[in-house]
Design a protein that fits this description.
eight-stranded parallel β-barrel, 527 residues, binds 3-methyl-2-oxobutanoic acid, three-stranded antiparallel sheet, binds zinc ion, alpha/beta
């Protein structure tokens, strides 16, 4: 009996939330995270109350293996899962990576649709069926908790799908996942597929049925819920709906729909919904993938009421236009926290209260930056401190550290950047002209540390709080070959934040170059 199976046995309306932000989400272009960032997200997912964390695809690279392994050591409540194709090497890597976890799962998959079997696998259906039995049987030698997925299930013929599922359960799979891999299904059809499985697979009572829906037609959440209404008791989803192409079903939308519409969808999850906003924001900051302002649940406008009629209704009774409260997803006003005259002790105790325990050097740098910020900005909010501290924490022990920047800009060129940085303890300064101040800064960094193969993919600025004196939070995404990295920087001066963000991204690229396994299996990285 697996942990998930047990939970559903005790409460038949319990829906297991299987989060794949760190696997299906992370593998989409531009969303890659380093080890530190994955650990931070895994910690937040565990606190959020997800039942299963799919932590990665261990065979894909040494970095993926290490991330799954470190997450397995750290996670306290959730089951930690590693993905594997129907190959012994994959399954062995997944089994070894998840070993330290208290509750561990191997998720193994193979394509079952005629299109995939012929063109992707070049395998006959009987060989696929054999691979199902073989892979699940082998996975069970590492753990009792094995999930089997029929990739492209929504385009698989019913008879063959049922035979594969029956074989997987017979071999020991305790979760059967039905992916709509290409986001092709529509809700009634996807729901009917799940119902058909319950009708036709004789041993289906020995496993949980799971949904895994992609959002190519914008139907991932609707399809997942149709699956639940027809008996599925696990939903695979990601924070902010990140994932391949148009993404996966968004965790926050699934969970808040079940909670808000429990009258017609009487199902429960274990999610502590007040932690949704923090988890969503952290992911956006790490990946540089902001959510659209009108995104359900976590968009900036999701709880904003702009029109006069709506505001009037809200003042009379909030339920006129609000079906859930902002507090229920953890959206609270950023508190005013510090003033210009706040001292070192008050600053330290505020940081501790917010969960930051910085080392001496980082604390000193953060305090100096806080004082400078307080000189420029009348009011310092919690969000300002979070931006400042996150910026400081990510900079500890970096190969290149920002020191100072002077810019000349305006209509009469040339625009120049006069930049000083520390590179491995040595101070380096350059003065460079550019096509505008941002171009001049990035050129200056490139002059100090040439990296001609790298391409700038994204440069994004957003204000941490309101007001013209708000801090800017800048995200820079660089790519080099198949490697993508995101860097962040925050400062009251947008150009300083830009320099910090670019340096942060470059440091990550340098680290990635030296840590990556040259044998990385590219096709393995994109199941
Ligand atoms: O979309 C998909 O089919 C997948 C499988 C690996 C489960 O992500
Ligand atoms: Zn997927």
């Amino acid at each position: 009996m697996t942990r998930a199976f047990d939970k559903v046995q005790k409460d038949p309306n319990r829906v297991i939330i299987f989060d794949t932000t760190l696997r299906d989400g992370e593998q989409s272009p531009g969303c890659s995270m380093n080890l530190e960032e994955k650990l931070k997200m895994a910690q937040l997912l565990d606190e959020l109350g997800v039942d299963v964390i799919e932590a990665g695809f261990p065979v894909a690279s040494e970095g993926d293996f290490e991330a799954v392994n470190e997450i397995a050591k750290m996670v306290k409540h959730a089951t930690v899962c590693g993905l594997a194709r129907a190959k012994h090497a994959d399954i062995e890597a997944a089994g070894n990576a998840i070993k330290p976890a208290e509750s561990r799962r191997i998720h193994t998959f193979i394509s079952t649709s005629p299109l995939h079997m012929k063109h992707k696998l070049n395998m006959e259906p009987d060989a696929v069926l054999e691979a199902v039995t073989d892979s699940v049987t082998f996975a069970r030698t590492f753990t009792d908790d094995v999930e089997w997925s029929a990739e492209d299930a929504s385009r698989t013929e019913d008879d063959f799908l049922c035979r594969c599922i029956e074989a997987a359960i017979k071999a020991g799979a305790r979760t059967i996942n039905i992916p709509d891999t290409v986001g092709y299904a529509v809700p009634a059809e996807y729901g009917a597929k799940i119902a058909m499985i319950f009708d036709r697979v004789p041993n289906i009572d020995q496993a949980l049925v799971s949904t895994h829906c992609h959002n190519d037609l914008g139907l991932a959440v609707a399809n997942s819920l149709a699956g639940v209404q027809n008996g599925a008791r696990q939903v695979e989803c990601t924070i902010n709906g990140i994932g391949e192409r148009a993404g996966n079903a968004a965790l926050e939308e699934i969970v808040m729909t079940l909670r808000t519409r429990s009258d017609s969808l009487p199902y429960e999850t274990n999610i502590e919904t007040t932690k949704i906003t923090k988890t969503s924001k952290t992911l956006s900051t790490i990946t540089g993938f902001g959510v659209q302002p009108n995104k359900a649940i976590v968009g900036a406008n999701a709880f904003a009421h702009a029109s006069g009629i709506h505001q009037d209704g809200m003042l009379k009774n909030t339920q006129t236009y609000e079906i859930m409260t902002p507090e229920s997803v953890g959206l609270t006003e950023s508190k005013l926290v510090m003033a210009k005259h706040s001292g070192r002790a008050a600053f330290k105790s505020k940081l501790l209260e917010m969960g930051y325990n910085l080392g001496d050097n980082a604390f000193q740098d953060a305090f100096t930056r806080f004082k400078k910020l307080a000189d420029k900005k009348k009011e310092i909010f919690e969000d300002d401190l979070i931006a400042l501290i996150e910026d400081e924490v990510i900079r500890e022990n970096e190969h290149m550290r920002f020191l100072s920047l002077q810019i000349t800009a305006g209509t009469e060129g040339p625009q120049t950047a006069d930049l000083c940085v520390m590179v491995d303890g040595e101070k380096k300064c350059v003065k460079v002209e550019g096509n505008g101040p941002v171009d001049a800064i990035f050129k200056a960094i490139r002059e100090i540390e040439p990296h001609s193969e790298a391409r700038l993919q994204l440069y994004q600025v957003h204000a941490v709080t309101g007001g013209t004196d708000a801090q800017a939070e800048v995200t820079v995404r660089l790519s080099e070959g198949d490697k993508f990295v995101n860097g962040q920087g925050a400062d009251a001066d947008t150009l300083v934040a830009s320099a910090r963000a670019y340096i942060h991204a470059l440091n990550k690229l340098v680290r990635k170059r030296s840590s990556q396994n040259p044998q990385r299996m590219q096709e393995a990285a994109t199941p």
